[in-house]
Amino acid sequence: MLTSITEGILCCLTGKGASLVLPLESSQPSDGFEFVEVKPGRVLRVRHIVPERQPVVTEEKITGTEKTECDYEDDDSPEDSYNESDYGSSVHCKRKITVYRNGQLVIENLGDVLHSEILQCQDGDLEPCSTVEVELADYKEMPSSPDPNPLPSPVPPSLGEQKPAPPPRRRRRKPKRTVLIDSKRVISSCKGTHSDVALFFVHGVGGSLDIWSSQLDFFSRLGYEVIAPDLAGHGASTAPQIAAAYTFYALAEDLRAIFKRYARKRNILIGHSYGVSFCTFLAHEYPDLVHKVVMINGGGPTALEPSLCSIFQLPSCVLHCLSPCLAWSFLKAGFARQGAKEKQLLKQGNAFNVSPFVLRAMMSGQYWPEGDEVYHAELTAPILLVHGMCDKFVPMDEDQRMAEILLFAFLKVIEEGSHMVMMECPETVNTLLHEFFLWEPDMSIKDSHKSDTEKTVALSDTLHTLKSNKSLDK
Question: Could you tell me the pTM of the whole model?
Answer without folding.
Answer: 0.77
